[in-house]
Structure to design on (387 residues):
């Protein structure tokens, strides 16, 4: 049976696109609605009861994010933005290039960090290196040179969930060689956040809408990173005072350092909903069968004669193509049977098209709303199509 938290989802609707955005459980939707219905107010600007409640709950969410990642508020802070892409670019477009000698990313990155590092390298006339990830997703540290590098990498690929298994060793070597490392954690936070716990990265960017919450971007950054930021994206909510030709940033205060990335009015309801999502996810993953379902579906695909699966290991996200059958047509056939899956290159054009020369693929990405019946139906429909 499907969880009561997703009771709005019909049994004949099978959603397998959680890598794009997860479905929202009832408690998260209720938290968002409660904000709009009961205390719809600005935060950080008002002294009446609604606003004070917003301030309290938003601060709770900032702390919850750090606890979820087991990071200390003495070293890190939480800021909110639009999405992962926006967060990465917000850092790259304001990061001082002083002391940076090279820009490094890898071949299986989402377009956001991949293109973002191209732009940063061009802007500052720096060499850019694209490392080849190993088949298991790791980086060969014997060959990697991180000397004074700006490094931007994911911890799980949005193609097939491939993990950066040696991320802790990568971070350690980057810092030892005088570099900065920014993590794209968009595909890790919902189902693989343990890989990020106590990680000593300079910044971690992710999207709340990929971890069962409302549409929102989240940035967790080291307090020490702020001194390397030249704030050029500035507005209300970021200043304590403004004179004719000058202003005083709120981020100069340790208690308000997060404002360095928060220009203008924030998405208060969405931030509060994220707090509820983290609480919900913490409980649900204790009893979830999600990874078992993923293993079943991966094993089925890997056993099909003409199916090429990009995953070497099971993951909640998996991509494949079938010899002689256009993936977009396959996705349409699945849709006609009530199964929602992605097709194409998933914003990873460089790796999938230009490195691997794959045709467009189909991607299945599972979430906590999925059931055994969903997997059985997907396998049944695929067998009919393949035969």
């Amino acid at each position: 049976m499907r969880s009561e938290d997703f009771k709005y989802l019909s049994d004949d609707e099978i959603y397998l696109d959680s890598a794009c955005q997860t479905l929202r459980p009832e408690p998260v939707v209720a938290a968002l609605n409660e904000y709009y219905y009961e205390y719809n107010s600005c935060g950080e600007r008002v002294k009446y009861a609604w606003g004070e409640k917003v301030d309290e709950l938003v601060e709770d969410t900032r702390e919850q994010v750090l606890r979820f990642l087991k990071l200390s508020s003495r070293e890190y802070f939480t800021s909110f933005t639009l999405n992962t892409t926006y967060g990465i670019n917000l850092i790259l477009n304001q990061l001082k290039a002083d002391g940076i000698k090279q820009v490094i990313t890898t071949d299986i990155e989402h377009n956001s960090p991949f293109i973002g590092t191209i732009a940063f390298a061009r802007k500052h006339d720096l060499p850019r290196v694209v490392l080849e990830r190993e088949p298991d997703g790791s980086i060969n540290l014997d060959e990697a040179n991180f000397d004074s590098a700006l490094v931007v990498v994911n911890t799980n690929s949005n193609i097939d969930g491939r993990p950066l298994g040696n991320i802790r060793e990568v971070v350690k070597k980057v810092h030892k060689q005088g570099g900065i490392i920014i993590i794209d954690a968009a595909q890790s936070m919902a189902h693989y956040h343990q890989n990020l716990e106590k990680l000593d990265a300079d910044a971690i960017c992710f999207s709340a809408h990929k971890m069962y919450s409302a549409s929102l971007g989240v940035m967790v950054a080291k307090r020490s990173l702020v001194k390397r930021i030249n704030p050029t994206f500035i507005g209300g909510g970021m200043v304590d005072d403004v004179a004719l030709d000058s202003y005083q940033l709120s981020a100069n205060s340790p208690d308000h350092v997060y404002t360095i990335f928060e220009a203008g009015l924030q998405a208060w309801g969405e931030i509060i909903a994220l707090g509820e999502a983290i609480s919900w996810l913490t409980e649900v993953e204790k009893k979830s069968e999600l990874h078992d379902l993923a293993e079943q579906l991966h094993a089925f695909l890997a056993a099909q004669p003409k199916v090429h699966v990009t995953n070497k290991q099971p993951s909640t996200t998996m991509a494949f193509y079938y010899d002689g059958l256009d993936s977009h047509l396959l996705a349409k056939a699945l849709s006609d049977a009530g199964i929602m899956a992605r097709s194409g290159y998933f914003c990873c054009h460089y790796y999938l098209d230009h490195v691997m020369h794959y045709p467009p693929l189909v991607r299945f990405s599972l979430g906590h709303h999925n059931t055994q019946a969903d997997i059985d139906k997907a396998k049944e429909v695929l067998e009919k199509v393949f035969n």
